[in-house]
Amino acid sequence: MHHAAAVTDELPIYDLLGADKIEAMVAAFYRRVPGDDLLGPMYPADDWAGAEHRLKTFLVYRFGGPHTYLEERGHPRLRMRHMPFSVDRAARDRWLALMMAAVDEVGVSLEHRSYLERFFTGIATFLRNR
Ligand code: HEM
Predict the structure, then answer these.
(1) Which of 2, 17, 48, 124 is most buried, judged by most C-beta within 10 A?
(2) Position 2 confidence tier, pLDDT thresholds 50, 70, 90
(3) With a 6 A CB cut-off, is 116 part of the ligand 1 pocket?
C-alpha cells in the first residue's frame, strides 16, 4: 500500500518534480504577485527577477537539488528575513492561495500536490510574525 506521506522516501522531491517544474511553478507564482493588492506592495518593485531567482534557488535547495541558494545567500534564516514584512494571517493565507494556484497551473500529481501543500503551509505558518 502506498501512502502519500511516503512521497520523498525513495527520491528527493527535486528529482520527482524536476528543475523545470519548480522553475515554472515559481514563475507562475510571481506572475500573480505584482497585481495582488495585499502581497504586491510588499515585494521590491525594481527587482522582480531577483525575488523570483531567490525563491526558485531556495526551493531547489530545500527540495534536494543544487545548493546555489546557500552559495549566493548563505543560511536562509527565513524568519529573520521576513521580519520587515507584515506576515499576518491574511498575508499567510494569500501567499498560500497564490502558490497553490501556481502549483495547479503547472500541474503536478495529487501526491506531489499534497506534499507541496504541506511543505508550503508549514513554512508559511512558521513565518507568521504579526
Ligand atoms: C507567509 C507569507 C509570505 C510573505 C508575505 C512573504 C513575503 C516575502 C517578501 C516580501 C520577500 C522579499 C522578496 C525578495 O526580495 O526576495 C520574501 C522573500 C523570500 N521568501 Fe517569502 N513570503 C511568505 C512566505 C514564504 C514561504 C512559505 C517561503 C518558502 C517556502 C518563502 C521564501 C522566501 C525566500 C527564500 C525569500 C528570499 C530570502 C532572501 O534570500 O533574501 N516565503 N518573502
Answers:
(1) 17
(2) very low
(3) no
Mean pLDDT value across the chain: 94
The atom of ligand 1 lying closest to the CA of 85 is: 10
Residue 106 CB less than 6 A away from ligand 1: no
User: Which residue's CA is the closest to the ligand 1 atom numbered 25?
Assistant: 124
Domain ranges of the chain: 24-126
Query: All 3 cell numbers of residue 103?
Result: 502549483
C-beta of 51 in contact with ligand 1 (< 6 A): yes
Using alpha carbons only, give the angle 41, 43, 47 rounded to the nearest 5 degrees: 125
Judged by DSSP in three states, 94 sits in helix
Fold classification of 24-126 (topology level)? Globin-like (1.10.490)
The tens digit of pLDDT for each residue in 5-16 reads 456 566 789 999
